[in-house]
Amino acid sequence: MGCRNIFLPKTVDVGGVYYDPIKPEYVVKNLQTAYTLRDIERYKECLDRDSFKFYFDPSQSDIRDILRDRWGIDSLSWGYNEEVISAQRLFEYARNIVLNLTNGTKIYSSENSEIWIWDYYLKIEPAVEGQGEAVGKAIFTFVKKGNKWYIRLWQDYRSGM
Predict the structure, then answer these.
(1) Higher pLDDT, 55 or 130
(2) Residue 52 structural domain
(3) What is the pLDDT of residues 44-103, one digit of tens each?
(4) DSSP H helical segments within 38-100, as ranges?
(5) Burial of residue 123, with CB atoms counted within 10 A of its CB: 0-12 exposed, 13-18 middle, 19 or more buried
(6) CB neighbour burial string for 9-48, b if at least 16 within 10 angstroms, e if fewer
(7) Which CATH number goes with the domain that contains 78?
(8) In sequence order, what are the beta bridge partners of 122?
(9) Cβ distance 134 to 11 under 8 Å?
(10) First vs last Cα of the chain: how many Å apart?
């Protein structure tokens, strides 16, 4: 029989810090951490459950066919439920995800809403359908509810690599 240290936690945090989302910038930090750790519950906390929309880059010619054939969606956007299902599938599939959001610039601000544009780099291993990396701009519209901020709109604009 061995001895057990009752003061050691049963689980050890493997990294990643989450911030109280009292600023839009903290929501973005939480989003990056949730992606990296593939933490669906924390990811959902970044999104406004009531009004979230993701808008795909309209210049990605194949995205409309993928959305229609796989999801039954005939538009270039989807809502909260589709986003959560998609993220859950990605988090379960990927061995490693890197999401870097940098050079954030606020382009609009009011008491309960802000719009920011960020450069992003996303790498997924193993690659999904041959697509392992994406680079571009993400425009986030944040909404403030109480003292917390959430992403209401996420617009994706990919760049060539």
Answers:
(1) 55
(2) 24-159
(3) 999 999 999 999 887 776 766 766 676 666 667 889 998 999 899 889 999 999 999 999
(4) 40-46, 63-66, 80-93
(5) middle
(6) eeeeeeeeeeeebeebbbbbbbbbbbbebbbbebbbbbbb
(7) 3.10.450.50
(8) 99, 134
(9) no
(10) 58
Residue 36 lies in a domain: yes
d(CA 45, CA 101): 18
Tell me which residue has tokens 């392992």: 132
Rounded CA-CA distance 103/92 in Å is 29
Residues paired with 118 in a beta bridge = 138
Spatial contact of 113 and 142, defined as CB atoms under 8 Å apart: yes
Can you tell me which residue has the tokens 């719009």?
115
Q: Is residue 5 part of a domain?
A: no
Find out whether 27 and 39 touch, Cβ atoms under 8 Å.
no
71 belongs to a structural domain: yes
Write down the pLDDT at residue 86. Answer: 86
Number of compact structural domains in the chain: 1
pLDDT (tens digit per residue) in 100-113:
999 999 999 999 99
Q: What angle do CA 56, 129, 46 make, to 5 degrees?
A: 45
Residues 6+ apart with CB under 8 A from 109: 115
